[in-house]
UniProtKB/TrEMBL annotation:
Organism phylogeny: Bacteria, Bacillati, Bacillota, Bacilli, Bacillales
List of catalytic residues: E91
The entry's keywords: Hydrolase, Metal-binding, Zinc
UniProt xrefs under PANTHER family: DEOXYCYTIDYLATE DEAMINASE, DEOXYCYTIDYLATE DEAMINASE-RELATED
Species annotation: Chengkuizengella marina
CDD domains associated with the record: deoxycytidylate_deaminase
InterPro entries recorded: APOBEC/CMP_deaminase_Zn-bd, CMP_dCMP_dom, Cytidine_deaminase-like, dCMP_deaminase, dCMP_deaminase-rel, Deoxycytidylate_deaminase_dom
Binding positions (Zn(2+)): H89, C115, C118
Protein name: CMP deaminase
BP terms from Gene Ontology: pyrimidine nucleotide metabolic process
Family stated for the protein in its record: Belongs to the cytidine and deoxycytidylate deaminase family.
Keyword Nucleus assigned: no
A molecular function (GO) term: zinc ion binding
GO cellular component: cytoplasm
Amino acid sequence: MSKNKRKDWDTYFLDIAYMAATRSQCPRRRVGAVLVQGKKLLGSAYNGAPMGVPDCSEAGCMIAEEYELQNVDGKDEMVKKQRCIRTIHAEQNLLLFTDRKDREGSTVYVTDQPCWTCANMLANSGVSEIVYHRPYTKDSDKVINLMEVRGIVFRTLEHYQPPKGVIDEIKE
């Protein structure tokens, strides 16, 4: 980037979300999120164990297996999903540590597309837009549909490039 060219706002705030993700100790997926009202940063968060509790890098992942009926190539199949239940997701932490009045009409920038649980929470949080970078295909169709029904702008920044060096720090 040239000296005089400024980053656009989407890039700027997604960069900050990626920086927040560097705080995560999750060995499976490190995620960061920020809450923005207009051009004002109101909060940041990352995924991890509750405060004062050993995280996954110290105590290991606490994996729960779930089965879900999905249509795969025109046939209904039971698909096994594995989720870590030790970790509070970045979006959940963001909602826990920000005020409802600040969320009304705000935008959440998150490194990864929200999972189904986080999408449900965000749908009820008052935010009007969610911007993400990396896909999370396990829940994608359901999440996209939920956001359409709720009227929440839901978009990915496909051509976004995280700050140099940061992506290496947070790779799965």
